[in-house]
Amino acid sequence: MNENNCENAKNSNAWPFAEARALLKHLNGQTPDKGYVLFETGYGPSGLPHIGTFGEVARTSMVRHAFHHLSDLPTKLFAFSDDMDGLRKVPDNIPNKEMVEQHLGKPLTQIPDPFGTHESFGHHNNARLQAFLDDFGFEYQFKSSTEYYTSNKFDNMLLKILVEYDKIISVVLPTLGQERRETYSPFMPVCKKTGVVLQVPVIEQNVDDGTIVYEDVDGSKVETPVTGGHCKLQWKADWGMRWAELGVDYEMSGKDLIDSVKLSSKICRILGCKPPQNLTYELFLDDQGAKISKSKGNGLAVEEWLRYAPPESLSLFMYQKPKTAKRLYFDVIPRNVDDYLTHVEKYNAQDETKKMDSPAWHIHAGHPPNETAHLSYNILLNLASVCHTEDKAVLWHFIGRYRPGATPENAPILDKLVEYAINYYRDFIRPAKQYRHATTVEKVALEDLVKALKTLPTDSDGVDIQSKVYEVGKHHYFENLKDWFKALYEILLGQSEGPRMGSFIALYGMEETLTLLRRAIAGEDLRI
Fold first, then answer.
1. What CATH number does the domain located at 440-521 have?
2. Rounded distance, CA 185 to CA 203, Å?
3. Residues linked to residue 141 through DSSP beta bridges, in sequence order
């Protein structure tokens, strides 16, 4: 490990390094007995993977990478799927809901795949998760709850829970309502007749035999082993048991699970093990301010974000302020793309001691890319908007004039950005456009803007053009210059917000802009 990098890592203010330092202290700087430091992320495959699921893996991977710059201790990352859990309700965003409803209560890996592509619903969602994580290049090992329960890997801990049954009950019951206390057991037997994961009273615990006796829904008494996949643990007990069995050293979780983390930690300690270091992150919210949910499908799907923006912009969204609640909807995409591009652009000019504080360092595991032909996403959106085009070649005509020498071949990041911008323009900007005609006062200002721009060389840069736009607005005594720019956006672009006009005009072209202004002054329909 490079000594300078290690020293910079120790002093970095970036939150992944703060987490990594806390973890190293949690471990007393020593390799655990299992031979490696284990990071874990959990996934409940009752719904399709969404960005919140990705966020845990992305953020955990950032902490893991930071940890490697503080310590030579070996690490692993497990992406653990709780796919033996019984399905409690049918998700809103899947096909063949009626078919799935017939299998409610069964483990997810025992429910037919409503998409018809995998052996079960659980296998389908697990595959979706892994495909996405693989596309992002995450280094992880996928683990299945079903596989661990049915192949006896959890048996020792399950028997230990049977031994410590009363202790575990004593810490869980105070957290439950009166009605739930009367039926609660950490063990949920899998019914031999129906395959349903049952939440039923446990009447006896037979430690020597490794079995429990429960009262079935028909009133009969049934004895079943707690091992070999015959029982599934209630999820808080399951979480604590998993930490103990696997030796998990680090796992983050959402704010809504604070109490669950405390309870699972107690269970882990009862089982004789040390619970992991934990980061509590804030929740993602939809466009209405509600918590996003896999089953409701009210957040963004991973595929949806990637239709409109590069994957690194999603990583930036996850990196920024993990302890602050953030809206996760389509309208946050453009800002995150431009913020990402800015961080990459500034990275190489930063002092070596500060590079580890840059989001670009954490997004790219210490090796951000470099591209000189930088154009903002918002500029491209507005270029597509004013050109009324979804043709890449048309946009590259303007880009090539603005950035001489730039081509799709030598500026691949920019070329891909053009594709994203066209998709976003087509789906969100074009349908929402509302052009208006200029007022009499605004027409006079636009006429003066034409005169001012004609005094500039056609190849003027954005700074000089912006100065002229600013002077015209100031000369016409707009109460607030923001009103002047807002008028330009609404009249010329059909929207209330827009780019820095100087940069946009430089990209679009002086002659093209003058033509657009003359059309606006004449009262023509700029939607055409």
1. 1.10.10.350
2. 10
3. 78
